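User: hey, got a sec? need UPF0102 protein FD145_541 folded
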Amino acid sequence: MGKESFQIGITGEIIAVEYLTQKGLSVIDRNFHSQQGEIDIIAKDGDIIVFVEVKYYSFRSYGSPLGSVRKSKRQSIIHAAQTFLYKKNLRQINCRFDVISIYRDSGGKTNIDYIKDAFYVN
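Assistant: Yep! Here you go:
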């Protein structure tokens, strides 16, 4: 990932953290890495641990934000979530996987699509 792409990702995560905080979630970790994946944001929503994938676009792309999180990406997020839970010794806890998509419309306004329970562990 180039420096410009990295900075765009950081900007998207900052916007996402602000949005989630306004929605009442508490961010507990960012950019958590495991051997097979990464989670952009980990938050708590009451007693639920929320693993959030952030997609940041300079414009509205075709298709849904969820469509950009393909099966292989979902699997890597799930693996990272399992690693996080194991390392933090968290058992018998409710979790969910959300996707937040941030994009600018033709007028330059920032828009956010937030999908709770975007995917599940099978």
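Quick note: The first strand starts at residue 26 and ends at 34. Let me know if you need anything else on UPF0102 protein FD145_541.
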